[in-house]
Write a structure and sequence with these properties.
The chain is mainly α and about 300 residues long. It has two domains: about 110 residues; about 190 residues, no CATH class. The chain has nine helices and no strands. The longest helix has about 40 residues. About 25% of the residues are buried.
Length: about 300
């Protein structure tokens, strides 16, 4: 956005746009994937998600106000962005019934509530093929553009492996979603029930479970650690590709100092989050193996 003093502060508007649009999308995904009315716990979980979504949009409005003050942008910019956020929230709520019907129409996987070596080989093959195809396709596209327009694009071939990493992240997320559907089916779609069992299995909390829920713990744990692993790998590939892009861009233009802060912040987040994620995955896998005491 071009404003009189906008240079260096455009990223604030990007943060605001993300705050307006991303939370409603996640809320709609949550409400369409899980049954948020199946139990009192599920209803409480949905209300918390709704409060967080609204809070993120309020925070986005604050960020947008700061942006307009710092850059001298017209006051109506904040009004327009706020209206877009409200519209996104309304659209997210409106499309939930349609998304629920589409989600319920999906056929149940033949593997039931099991994830074995056959499923692992299938998902690993899909991830590797997706990355390889993306790598070759992007490199071929760059080469074709070079030949067609007589331009030397050799210095941008480095984006090919970055796009391959992003494609791998999407493929991992797809695999995680398939396993999460098995978890959802295991608990009858009840968001509250999944959260309750998840607190025991994933977070190691000592909570009382009903006899019916306790019977689901082994299958829940065996699926949950797989879903966690794919989700973590997806995050590593995506964040790694974005971080590598920033590093390479900074190497070409060291004068852009804000990239240093971005790289440092993302690096610090990776160092902080990865150990916690590994601990959770190991705890869940240990629980799945039947050693409950070791997981707590």
């Amino acid at each position: 956005m071009n404003t009189p003093r906008g240079e260096g502060w455009v990223w604030l508007s990007s943060v605001a746009v993300g705050g307006y649009l991303l939370p409603p999308v996640l809320l709609a995904s949550l409400a369409s994937f899980w049954d948020t009315t199946a139990s009192a716990d599920a209803q409480r979980g949905y209300r918390r998600a709704l409060v967080v979504t609204v809070g993120m949009q309020v925070l986005a409005t604050v960020v947008m106000c700061v942006f307009t003050v710092l850059t001298g942008a017209p006051w109506w910019v904040t009004v327009v962005f706020t209206a877009v956020g409200i519209a996104a929230m309304a659209a997210a709520v409106a499309v939930v019934p349609s998304l629920q019907r589409l989600e319920r129409a999906r056929p149940t996987g033949a593997s039931g509530h099991q994830y074995g070596r056959a499923e692992f080989r299938r998902d690993l093959r899909k991830i590797l093929v997706t990355m390889a195809v993306t790598l070759v396709a992007v490199a071929a596209l760059i080469a074709a553009l070079t030949l067609a327009f007589d331009n030397d694009l050799a210095d941008v071939f480095w984006v090919s492996p970055l796009f391959a990493l992003m494609a791998g992240a999407i493929a991992c997320l797809t695999a995680s979603s398939r396993v999460n559907r098995q978890i959802r089916d295991l608990v009858g779609g009840d968001l509250g029930r999944a959260n309750r069992i998840g607190k025991v299995v994933v977070r190691g909390k000592d909570l009382p479970l009903s006899g019916e829920d306790a019977e689901l713990v082994p299958a829940f744990a065996s699926l949950s650690w797989v879903a966690q692993t794919y989700a973590a790998l997806s995050s590593v590939l995506l964040v790694g590709s974005l971080l590598a892009m920033q590093v390479l861009t900074f190497a070409d233009d060291p004068s852009d100092s804000w990239r240093i802060w971005y790289i440092a912040l993302v690096g610090a987040l990776i160092v902080a989050v990865i150990p916690l994620t590994v601990v959770q995955i190991r705890r869940t896998r240990t629980y799945a193996s039947g050693d409950r005491k070791a997981s707590q």
